[in-house]
Amino acid sequence: MQKRTKYTSEFRSEAVKLALSSELSSAMISKELGINKNTLYNWISNSMQEKTNSTKSSNNNINAKYKALEKENRELKSKLRRTESEREILKKAAAYFASQNV
Fold first, then answer.
1. What is the pLDDT of residues 23-79, one digit of tens each?
2. How many structural domains compose the chain?
3. pTM value?
4. Which structural domain, as residue segments, surrounds residue 54?
5. Cα distance between residue 50 and residue 12, in whole Å
């Protein structure tokens, strides 16, 4: 049986970068690097999944922030309507009391 070779994360990431940026096939690159082609395919697949997952999580953060801002906007609009209503009532009361003093 063969021993499993442990590769550093730097080696893996560089191999993936090379495979994605090169015009050579992944099989040729894996042969040049001395690794199994299926190993390189797995590394590429894992790299793509990590990128997809990080994009999804950042989209979730953006959506959560957007929803929080929408909620705050609704609350502020409600407070503004109430304040405008109170101001109108106070204006009418001031006009009423001003007419009573004359």
1. 888 888 889 998 999 999 999 999 888 888 777 777 888 888 899 999 999 999 999
2. 1
3. 0.53
4. 9-101
5. 14
How far CA 6 is from CA of 9, 10, 31, 38, 39, in Å, comes to 9, 12, 17, 15, 11
- The answer to whether position 2 is within a domain reads no
CA 40 to chain centre: 28
Query: Whole-angstrom Cα distance, residue 10 to residue 37?
Result: 18
Identify whether 67 is part of a domain: yes
